[in-house]
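User: I'll paste a sequence; please echo it back and then give the predicted structure.

Assistant: Echoing your sequence first, then the prediction.
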Amino acid sequence: MTVKNNQSTFDIVTQTNGDAKSILSFCLANDLSITETLTPGSQIIDYISTFTNEIVKDFFQSKGSELATANARAETEVLGIGNLIIGTNFDIL
C-alpha cells in the first residue's frame, strides 16, 4: 500500500483493519511512531493484527474510499521585524 497525502497512521489502520486498536501492530511492522507524520508515496508493509472490524473494513473497500484526515501542512507565516503589525501579530505590553 502507498501512503496518500494527509494520511495518518490511524487512517491507514482504520481503512485496512477497520479498527484503530490495530495501530500498535501496524507501527511495529513498519517501524513507525504512532504520531509520526507519514510521507506521501512511501510504501507500507502488510501487518497482522487480532483487532479487526470486518463491517468497517468492508465499508471502505466497497466504497473505494481512502481515509486522509491528517492536518494539511500549512505554509509557515513569514515573521520578522518588517512583517510585524501592532495589534495583529505583534503585541505591546
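The mean pLDDT is 81. Residues 18 and 53 are 5 Å apart (CA to CA).
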